Amino acid sequence: xxxxxxxxxxxxxxxxxxxxxxxxxxxxxxxxxxxxxxxxxxxxxxxxxxxxxxxxxxxxxxxxxxxxxxxxxxxxxxxxxxxxxxxxxxxxxxxxxxxxxxxxxxxxxxxxxxxxxxxxxxxxxxxxxxxxxxxxxxxxxxxxxxxxxxxxxxxxxxxxxxxxxxxxxxxxxxxxxxxxxxxxxxxxxxxxxxxxxxxxxxxxxxxxxxxxxxxxxxxxxxxxxxxxxxxxxxxxxxxxxxxxxxxxxxxxxxxxxxxxxxxxxxxxxxxxxxxxxxxxxxxxxxxxxxxxxxxxxxxxxxxxxxxxxxxxxxxxxxxxxxxxxxxxxxxxxxxxxxxxxxxxxxxxxxxxxxxxxxxxx
Length: 361
Known about the structure:
By secondary structure, the chain is α+β, with helices and mostly antiparallel strands. Helix content is 23%, strand content 32%. The strands form five sheets. It has a six-stranded mixed sheet, sandwiched between helices. Strands 16-20-17-18-19 form a five-stranded antiparallel sheet, with no helix packed on it.
């Protein structure tokens, strides 16, 4: 396995890019540790697949370097990078048996027969393919075929990294959870360096140790699932992670507090002092899980519950604050709150301040 280092990396599909908007990937510097499980998460067109293909060598970056364990591989073709890549659609040989498919990458490299047999048996067991090892791949379902494709990527134990490009897209929803869990188990057993591209936050957060969030060609945050949820460093992360996403309100500073439509909201001490000079826009952000309805005797910001949706284990209240500011509040399943006047509490420790989309403090 390998540590992957991206140094001043950027890429444009234009011959002569002039400004930031001409880049599919804007300049980034990141180190992905040996043996880590990483997810590249973001919406369509944000640069996820471009970054994956640069790591694998299918795309040469316009700027910067890629190194594996300190060795510069920027100019090396894919076959010399020792990378395994699993694509969105299964890449297998339908006329071969499952056993032959899994063994193929090892036979091509002249691995001894006994080692091939042992490794194929090990990977087939991990992927629950033991019972179909001697069946032709053509007769199997889409989920089994994608397992074979994954197995072909995992069967080599000498690869620098295994790259997954949205591998569960063609899998039925009820099987996706099983395959995500299986990949997590395999990572824990084999300690492979895994990079998993997805636009699905559930896939990213349940699979990865650390998630790389891309937005408009930029890495806006690299962190654990807990860090992305509790401390989004960019408003896009707050919006994209969570269901529903973070509530955002435009505001202005008033000493060590912020004011929203004439209502003062307290911040954690010291945060207001860290607001950068020359900012264009200030917002506070708070997740629906941390926004509270005031109880008797508690002060708060006046608001009106417009509707409450019952989602089984919890309820989501749609709340109107002021004339046009709508927020989402997550309530317990036993909450009796319904439409009508309420007061909202913004706990300072969970109320984040953003200047021009970037977290302050």
